[in-house]
Amino acid sequence: MIQKTFLLLLITILCNSAAISSPTNNHPANDNSKSTLSHAITLYNDAKYPANFSHFDYTSPSALKGGTLKKAVQGNYDSLNPFIPKGTSGDEINLIYDTLTVISADEASSQYGLIAQTIETAADRSWVIFHLRKEARFNDGEPITAEDVVFSYNLLIEKGSPFFRSYYADVVAVKALNKHSVKFTFKNGNNRELPLIVGQLTVLPKHYWEKRDFSKSSLEIPLGSGPYKITRADPGRKIVYERVKNYWAKDLPVNVGMYNFDRIQVDYYKDAVVLLEALKAGQYDFRVENVSKQWATGYTSPAIEHGLLKQELITHQNPTGIQCFLMNLRQQKFQDIRVRQALTYAFDFEWSNKNLFYGLYNRAQSFFSNSELASSGIPEGDELKLLERYRGKIPDSVFTEEFTLPVSAGNGYNRHNLRLAAKLLKEAGWVVKDNLLVNAESGEPFIIDMVIYSPTYERIVNPYAQALKKLGIQFIVKNVEVSQYINRLRSYDYDMTSIVIPQSLSPGNEQLEYWSSRSADIEGSRNYSGIKNPVVDELVNLVISAQTREELITRTHALDRVLLNNYYVIPQWYSGKHRIAYWDKFGKPDIAPKYDPTFDLGLLTWWIDPSKEQALNRNKKLLNQ
Fold first, then answer.
1. For residue 7, how many other CB atoms are within 10 A of its CB?
2. Is the pLDDT of residue 161 over 90?
3. What pTM, to 2 d.p., does this model score?
4. From 1.10.10.10, 3.10.105.10, 1.10.3720.10, 3.90.1150.150, which CATH number describes the 322-574 domain?
5. Cys bridge to 102: 3, 95, 270, 542, which one at CB 3.0-4.6 A?
6. Domain boundaries, given as residue ranges, for the chain
7. CB-count burial class (<10 Å; 0-12, 13-18, 19+) for 193
8. How does the average pLDDT of the chain come out, rounded?
């Protein structure tokens, strides 16, 4: 969730433009540089919605309020604090909090004011000032002030997840200029995304948290300022949210047609099979299906046959990032690129897609799949010029051949690729003795501990384990509880795991968390691979400092290419389509959000249609007779 804006409402009403340019030398910071005041903030000054817009195109002003939305997830939670590196927080907990700005789900990189009314940005992007709405309130009626913003920032940096320290690393000062204006000052203006990044800041109530230990995992229901509040927290069973009837921001243009359900209930299940059966039994309303086998074979019931429970495939334009087998480079055995290549050759995607996934997936060939940010072919033009400075420091294959992953016949044998894998392992100093792969010098066996948290994933991992066994590698699959998996991920306690590394249309500071050397040794960071590569560090910084969309694409292509050719992960698959199932009780806007994965394909813009719900209940009774 992302958002931004400022205080001069009169100017924003008078200026009917997508962004208001108001050069001034008299802003509250007493700075001599020119600035721009606007209702919105974008990466490249291309906001879609003008200052007087009434609602986002993907919402409906006539949406009905009321009813209960029931969702369900597999797993559990033991905390209501999502900001710290302890515990597993309840799902959908972001619904109780507001941020300075909110993202537009049909634009690549635009944010509009929520807590902030207007946003003042330095011409050189070296600082940003958020002018807060005077009517902004926490849900106990206390006003949201600049002091709360400063407190929230400092709290997250000092006691929050390591992610925040990395994400806000280029912020050098945060200062309340007055009760309703707060200024963020940056190291320099090279990172155009920083004003948007700090606009994502969740504003926490100082008067609530200064009396409590923020670093402690807790099930005490926290105070927020958002459209919902928690009314029931029952770990292992459910978490229930209730719409705040007097929500201070309910009539703002960014919220018109949003948050239409009176209650949102999330039920928790331990078993994936039971979870699907509960949907078909009508125990909950909406599901995003991530298991291809279940999508292909599990959705059989009279309710589906009669159209009461609907299945939809929705083509989307969201970057899918990369789903992969991830190797922990902190383990010495993965340091040699030839070993990583060999493990890549051993994975038979074609067989898996045919026999396990019913042909529903594409092979991931990029860290930025399903987007224009994905590299392809051989580098040329500006990208080649950029990469030339690193020649000799990156694999030669970057310049000489298009990156492609090994392809099999899909017959389950994969002999050619396994022979190439065996050759690479031998070159890297590993030999087979008594059917086991061992280090030629130390005699140490090659053992991989694979950590997963879902029983359904074993069917995917086991064929890979059998392939590695043919190479003499002992592949031990450890299926653990979700909470244990999260703890092991945070402490890097694994040899290999399967993970999705998400991406957005505008990659920026989060890339530091994913790939930079400085995050590799920080426990709880998202550099799960433990990558330490000076060239990658430089390319990440170049992506962050891109000044135009074209420059961003070129630099991201270069980063993508270097990551791929170093074989840091074993790419798996992706789909350019969402698979959803839902009971036919909802009304929807005419237009769906173009890029929005966070709203479950716009689910928070849907509403309960009373006539559909009544018809659904009647038809359910008829089916059960």
1. 24
2. yes
3. 0.80
4. 3.10.105.10
5. 3
6. 9-58+94-209, 322-574
7. buried
8. 92
